[in-house]
Protein backbone atom coordinates (compact mmCIF):
# COMPACT_ATOMS: atom_id res chain seq x y z
CA UNK A 1 0.00 0.00 0.00
CA UNK A 2 1.25 3.49 -0.85
CA UNK A 3 0.16 6.89 0.35
CA UNK A 4 0.33 10.61 -0.23
CA UNK A 5 0.01 13.42 2.31
CA UNK A 6 -1.71 16.55 0.95
CA UNK A 7 -1.58 20.12 2.23
CA UNK A 8 -3.66 23.14 1.28
CA UNK A 9 -1.54 26.03 0.00
CA UNK A 10 -2.14 29.60 -1.05
CA UNK A 11 1.23 29.79 -2.84
CA UNK A 12 1.44 26.63 -4.95
CA UNK A 13 4.19 27.69 -7.37
CA UNK A 14 6.45 29.08 -4.62
CA UNK A 15 6.00 26.04 -2.36
CA UNK A 16 6.62 23.58 -5.22
CA UNK A 17 9.75 25.52 -6.20
CA UNK A 18 11.01 25.39 -2.60
CA UNK A 19 10.63 21.61 -2.35
CA UNK A 20 12.01 20.88 -5.83
CA UNK A 21 14.81 23.43 -6.11
CA UNK A 22 15.93 23.67 -2.48
CA UNK A 23 15.00 20.36 -0.83
CA UNK A 24 15.54 18.24 -3.96
CA UNK A 25 12.14 16.59 -4.43
CA UNK A 26 10.82 15.77 -7.91
CA UNK A 27 7.41 16.42 -9.39
CA UNK A 28 5.60 13.08 -9.45
CA UNK A 29 2.26 14.25 -10.89
CA UNK A 30 0.71 17.54 -11.95
CA UNK A 31 -3.04 17.93 -11.56
CA UNK A 32 -5.23 20.97 -12.36
CA UNK A 33 -4.70 22.68 -8.97
CA UNK A 34 -2.44 20.20 -7.18
CA UNK A 35 1.16 19.09 -7.52
CA UNK A 36 2.36 15.81 -6.04
CA UNK A 37 6.06 15.61 -5.21
CA UNK A 38 8.29 12.65 -4.42
CA UNK A 39 11.51 12.36 -2.45
CA UNK A 40 12.68 8.76 -2.26
CA UNK A 41 9.58 6.82 -1.16
CA UNK A 42 7.95 9.91 0.37
CA UNK A 43 5.09 11.40 -1.66
CA UNK A 44 3.45 14.63 -0.62
CA UNK A 45 1.24 17.08 -2.43
CA UNK A 46 0.08 20.66 -2.35
CA UNK A 47 -3.29 21.88 -3.60
CA UNK A 48 -4.12 25.53 -4.28
CA UNK A 49 -6.87 26.47 -1.81
CA UNK A 50 -7.97 29.30 0.43
CA UNK A 51 -6.13 29.00 3.72
CA UNK A 52 -2.81 27.21 3.90
CA UNK A 53 -2.47 24.08 6.02
CA UNK A 54 0.71 24.48 8.04
CA UNK A 55 0.29 22.04 10.94
CA UNK A 56 2.46 18.97 11.12
CA UNK A 57 6.04 18.32 10.09
CA UNK A 58 7.39 17.13 6.75
CA UNK A 59 10.33 14.90 7.72
CA UNK A 60 12.89 13.95 5.10
CA UNK A 61 14.98 10.95 6.08
CA UNK A 62 18.40 10.71 4.44
CA UNK A 63 21.14 8.10 4.68
CA UNK A 64 23.98 9.99 6.37
CA UNK A 65 25.13 12.96 8.42
CA UNK A 66 26.85 14.26 5.29
CA UNK A 67 23.50 14.37 3.47
CA UNK A 68 21.89 16.16 6.44
CA UNK A 69 24.73 18.69 6.33
CA UNK A 70 24.34 19.13 2.56
CA UNK A 71 20.64 19.86 2.92
CA UNK A 72 21.39 22.23 5.78
CA UNK A 73 23.72 24.12 3.45
CA UNK A 74 20.80 24.52 1.01
CA UNK A 75 18.31 25.44 3.75
CA UNK A 76 20.52 27.42 6.15
CA UNK A 77 18.60 30.68 5.60
CA UNK A 78 15.37 29.07 6.81
CA UNK A 79 16.88 26.57 9.30
CA UNK A 80 16.43 26.95 13.06
CA UNK A 81 20.08 26.15 13.82
CA UNK A 82 22.90 23.86 12.76
CA UNK A 83 22.37 20.09 12.57
CA UNK A 84 22.70 18.33 15.91
CA UNK A 85 22.57 14.88 17.43
CA UNK A 86 19.32 14.05 19.25
CA UNK A 87 20.28 11.48 21.88
CA UNK A 88 16.72 10.56 22.80
CA UNK A 89 15.83 9.39 19.27
CA UNK A 90 19.36 8.59 18.09
CA UNK A 91 19.09 10.84 15.07
CA UNK A 92 21.12 13.66 13.56
CA UNK A 93 18.76 16.43 12.52
CA UNK A 94 17.77 20.03 11.97
CA UNK A 95 14.51 21.87 11.45
CA UNK A 96 13.63 24.51 8.88
CA UNK A 97 10.55 26.33 7.62
CA UNK A 98 9.00 26.33 4.15
CA UNK A 99 7.66 29.52 2.49
CA UNK A 100 4.27 29.21 4.21
CA UNK A 101 5.63 28.33 7.64
CA UNK A 102 5.38 24.54 7.59
CA UNK A 103 7.97 22.75 9.69
CA UNK A 104 10.51 20.79 7.66
CA UNK A 105 12.80 18.31 9.38
CA UNK A 106 15.85 16.65 7.84
CA UNK A 107 17.28 13.68 9.72
CA UNK A 108 19.27 10.50 9.56
CA UNK A 109 18.81 7.59 11.95
CA UNK A 110 21.94 6.57 13.83
CA UNK A 111 20.65 3.65 15.87
CA UNK A 112 21.64 0.06 15.27
CA UNK A 113 19.13 -1.92 13.19
What does this 3D model show about the protein?
The protein has helices spanning 12-23, 65-75; strands at residues 5-9, 26-30, 34-39, 42-48, 57-61, 84-86, 91-97, 103-109. The longest helix has 12 residues, at 12-23. The protein is built from two helices and eight strands. The mean pLDDT is 96. The chain has 113 residues and is an alpha/beta fold. A four-stranded mixed beta sheet has the order 1-4-3-2, with helices on one face. It has a four-stranded mixed beta sheet with strand order 5-8-7-6, covered by helices on one side. A hairpin with a 2-residue loop joins β3 (34-39) and β4 (42-48).
Question: What string gives the helices and strands in order?
Answer: EHEEEEHEEE
The average pLDDT value, as a whole number, equals 96
What value does the Rg take, in angstroms?
14 Å
The end-to-end span amounts to 23 Å
What would you call the structural class? Answer: alpha/beta
Proportion of residues in extended strands: 35-45%
Overall geometry: globular
Low-confidence stretches: none
By oligomeric state, this entry counts as: single chain
**How many strands appear in the DSSP assignment?**
8
**How is the largest sheet built, in terms of strand order?**
1-4-3-2
How many separate helices?
2
